[in-house]
Amino acid sequence: MLSGMRICLLTGGGYPFRRDALAGWCRTLVDGLAGHRFDLVTVSDREPLGGPAYPLPPHVASAGCVVLPRDTPKSHRDENAVAAAVLLCRGLAERRDEDFARGLAALASLAEKAPPLHSVPLADVLLDAWKAGRATEDGERLPKLSVRDARTAVTLLRHAARALAVPVPETDLIHCVGGTTPLLAALAARWRTGTPLLLTEARAPVSRPRSSEERLSPAVQTVLRRFRRAVARTGYAEAGLIAPLSEFHHAWALRHGAEPGRLVPVPAGVDPRDFPSAPEARTVPSIVWAGNGAPDSGLPKLLDAFARISTAVPGTVLHLVGVGSTHEDHAAELIDRTGLGRAVRMHPIPADPRARYATGHLVVHLPGPADPPYRLIEAMMSGRAVVGVDVGPVAETLGDAGVVVPEDDPETLAGACVSLLKAPARRRALGDAARRRALAYFTTDRVVRAYGALYTDLATAPPAPTYELPLAVPAPRETEPATLRWLAQETLTPGGSP
Q1: H or E stretch including 7?
Q2: Given 110, 132, 224, 427, which residue has the most CB atoms within 10 angstroms?
Q3: pTM for the full predicted model
Q4: How far, in Å, CA of 40 to CA of 63, rounded?
Q5: pLDDT tens digits, 302-331
Q6: Rounded Cα gap, residues 369 and 407, in angstroms
């Protein structure tokens, strides 16, 4: 691996200022690649509560959080911005990826001077494009977009477009870790500087609206869904390499235009030293769920299932680990509605990861529809039996080392938990199998080696041109870069074998 390479790690609202699963993964990557220099940039809607949540190693050159402002500055009409917005909206409504990308690139070039969409009558532009739009993904016509809907949608689009103005340090490589907001910033930086882009597909866009958007009209939800997918497709086209975390994310990228030759699956990993296997605590039956308690975190479904578990196994305690101050009131209100009282206990993320799952006899993993499998792998590495809800990459990650139950079925979820709570031998056997699987496939050393190779592939200069004499028998040639062939030997198949 070359030393001295400068990497910009670009994320959305997390590392190094917040402790969560994705931030932990970023920390592992940065700490493990000490031969490179890192500039850490995270983009957020709000200021971080304090300084970095993790100690930064000496090879981190800078770390900053860019907060997207919400005020709307007044500006004069800019015909270049209007033309770019027309392309962008036409690309949304008519599914023209090239038009969308051209419009987005033009807006990125204007964003260095002022927020580009604030000088555009964007509601009118969007309404005109919508009238000529194509059918939705399921074959139905586009939902009617009223003037009020258009104004709501453009408010959200204007705010999202502010990410195009995020300053990105000049580096040898931009590594963008998932999400629409950081990807917009990464695309703008790539178009301005030509810097190679590596995209880690950590959170695939999903068809259903986010919990905070459920009250929006169907038309506004459709605008946002199409915008996020169009940004993702543009990212797939611009990235030199794309590293999905699972077969689920890999399949998503393929369905949305990613070239197969640019996809290098690199499963997530955790450090076995951070999550050692420990004997079960000699306490009342306990279940651990790790999540932030947000409206889209699956907490209501978990509490529904836990009410049934408490009836079948009296005295069982549910530990909610990782509920932050932002969502603490929301989680407490949901718990109060259950009437379970002290049977449910909330905890912040402990500074020592070894304490995260130690209190539980089993772990319930109920992720959002596109959440990366970090928490699941942590629980597996901790040697705890896992009951996982079949969402996203859960089934392929857990394999046969746990219990997978259908989505939106609290009764089956509760039944699986009760069965394991009453069968300690089977529960411990599953915990041992989960740790063995995590050690075999999901460790940080594999992640660090893979990304070190990807950095080298993208950020180093191409070889000098050579001249060959014609041969009677042509030499065999490989179509894939050497790094891709090497990494392919270590990726997982859908069935879980290497």
Answers
A1: strand 6-12
A2: 224
A3: 0.85
A4: 4
A5: 999 999 999 999 999 999 988 877 778 888
A6: 10
